[in-house]
Amino acid sequence: METSAHDDLPTPAQRALDALAVNAEDQAALDTLAHSDVLVPVPDDAVDGDGTDTMLALPVLEQAGGDPVVPVFTSEGEMTELLPFVSRYHLVPLAALAAHWPDEDLSLAIDGSSKHGLTLTSHGVRTLLAR
């Protein structure tokens, strides 16, 4: 597969994550992030009876401390780095995902393994990103 010079450029969501790493209160970065699309990995067992993956099942991983976290990604490269075995995903507006975030104590990790990764608590998802 060929790559272009544009593949190495950060996406607007990645630039927003970088800005939030410096200033967690950066409203412009939060707005950019809230209006960005993210890749939600599709677990292999999340298929309908006809073999399609039309439902959106949140993949839940366990963090080192045992807390549940949903990983989402700003690009295919970021997803492949952390979850190389995942080949399918849904492209979802982050604000829409946040607006329907479960009430339980479930964190959201955006590009969790990267230098600009951000993890938000359940409350943070609903208050900061549901715009």
From TrEMBL:
Task: Domain (SseB protein N-terminal): give its ranges.
Answer: 15-126
Could you tell me which InterPro entries the record lists for this protein?
SseB_N
- Can you tell which superkingdom this protein's organism belongs to? Bacteria
Name listed for the protein in its UniProt record: SseB protein N-terminal domain-containing protein
What species does this protein belong to? Streptomyces diastatochromogenes
